[in-house]
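Hi, can you check this record?
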Amino acid sequence: MKVSVILPTYNRANMLTEAIDSALNQTFKDFELIIINNYSTDNTESVVKSYDDKRIRYFKNRNNGLVSVNRNYGIQKSRGEYTAFLDDDDLWLPEKLEKQVKLLDSNKELGLVYSGSHVIDNKGNLIRHTYFRGIKPCRGDVFNELLVSNFIPQLTVLVRRETLDKVGKFDTKYKIAQDYDLWLRIAAHYQVDFIDQPLAKYRFHKDGASQKEMIRSFQEEILAKECWLNKDQSLRKEIGGRIKRRKTLLYSGMILMSGVNIFKEHNIKSIRAFWDLVKYLARAKT
């Protein structure tokens, strides 16, 4: 088995068919599609069982609100040399696996490859041609650049299984930034490459992430950066200034999204946390 595709799902039967079809319609055929259902309450199970394709392996597993739990479960059940990740609302273009398998096969030093992606809305309409608008993709020894800012879209990744065996699976302490944390661990040990064309379609939900989830994503990105900065003090000298500027943007976003609500709630701890952010911004050199 060459590739294992991990697809966790929960209550998205209306979109799941498109995701499954985009995987099964790959020009590259040597793969298994591992679907993990988090005990959906809609007709997800009947959607999956309507397919008569031996490449599909179907499991149920609770994730307690952490999709990383089901991705790890899928990795545990997988048999492929390479591993790919597809969410139940996203899509792949037909040549995604073929092009990426060829790239990984060509260079044994690569631990991970990724690609560009279109961005679509709930109805599948194109919002923008590239995921990389305002983001610069990098290849080679990308760790420092990745630590400054995440430029690897999860739905485009293809990673060696032996790479995951070495660096570990998704860290469940992260609810949102679990992919960023994993890419950093991979980039610390392996070369990374990308295919400079869209090979997937990322679905942007207009009413998707809540204010609370966005704030948490910023907090977790900062946490991931601080873990590495504390582990390797030389990183502060090399890229500390750039990371500080990125953190300033994250803290600014947190303030804009949470400031008013914090004061409405009259929560003393939250107000103190808010002013900690303000003081950080005052100290930060932009």
Q: What stands out?
A: Residues 211-283 form one domain.
